[in-house]
Amino acid sequence: MNVIELNHLTKTYGNARGITDISFHVEDGEIFGFIGPNGAGKSTTIRTLLSLIYPTSGSATIFGKDSVKFAPEIKKEIGYLPSEVFYYDNMKVKDLLKYSASFYKKDCSKRIRELAEIMDLDLNKKIDDLSFGNKKKVGIVQGLLHDPELIILDEPTSGLDPLMQQKFFDLLKEENKKGKTILFSSHILSEVQKMCDRVAIIKEGRLVKVEKISTLRENNHKKFKLETKTPITNLTIDGVTNLEVKENITSFLYSGNINLILKKLSEFELENLWIDEPDLEEIFMHYYEKEN
């Protein structure tokens, strides 16, 4: 069964960009990535799916039920982490989480303690005294404390340090092993590659593609930047795109056998070499050019 189905979901805001004709599904037990640059429409899609805002046209179902008609019932089984979290500053963390837990007809106190320990969160602190990263941790614990069947995360790692991000990913994998379905939105491709089976790519409010991560990986690019003694004039090798030469600095994207490109580069007199993951914008540019 598909846990989530979006059918031509559209949300328009006058002249401001919303989302147009978004259709994809998330299967039971899947970790599904939803990816696009900032401002692409990820949060709008998620908020419309959760009927926090209402669609202009199209529809969505969660657990096979219409997401607007059955919203209160559905929300009991969903853990949601918005991209930005806001709280009453005066409360202690444990009081806020206790208050959140009171909406569910189950005792969540043991789970709150477990999650706080995993995420290294001090339950006795006041919300007001927390850093942005620690407020994010509160949001994560709040989203998971009632053991939801479906977990929806909107840019969950912003504000978390790398070590905490890794703990968080391990936690999500554990939840997934228990059969939980996860929808994970991000603008960081490497995060999604680490976590997800399939991914929907969105740009400017429109769906570009739904792709298996394995296929994306095959088309994975590395970003090269090199500084040479003299400007490079003759870099001809298959798999090089977006080539830019500015005096002694050459940059390009490369997809292919890394040994071949390094062999080719060893012919030049290198002063410096940087190899990086390309950011999404660059991968998207490649994708859109290919699509066109």
The helix count comes to 10
CATH topology of the largest domain: Rossmann fold
| Number of separate domains | 2
Query: How big a fraction of the residues is strand?
Result: 25-35%
Give the CATH superfamily of the largest domain.
P-loop containing nucleotide triphosphate hydrolases
CATH class placement of the largest domain: Alpha Beta
Largest sheet: 6 strands, mixed
Structural class determined from secondary elements: alpha/beta
Low-confidence segments, given as residue ranges, are none
Binned, the helix content reads 25-40%
What is the CATH architecture descriptor of the largest domain?
3-Layer(aba) Sandwich
Radius of gyration: 22 Å
Q: What is the overall shape?
A: globular
Strand order of the largest sheet: 6-7-8-3-9-10
Count the strands? 14
What is the oligomer described by this structure? single chain
- Terminal residue distance: 34 Å
| Order of H and E elements | EEEHEEHEHHHEHEHEEHEEEHEH
Mean pLDDT rating: 89
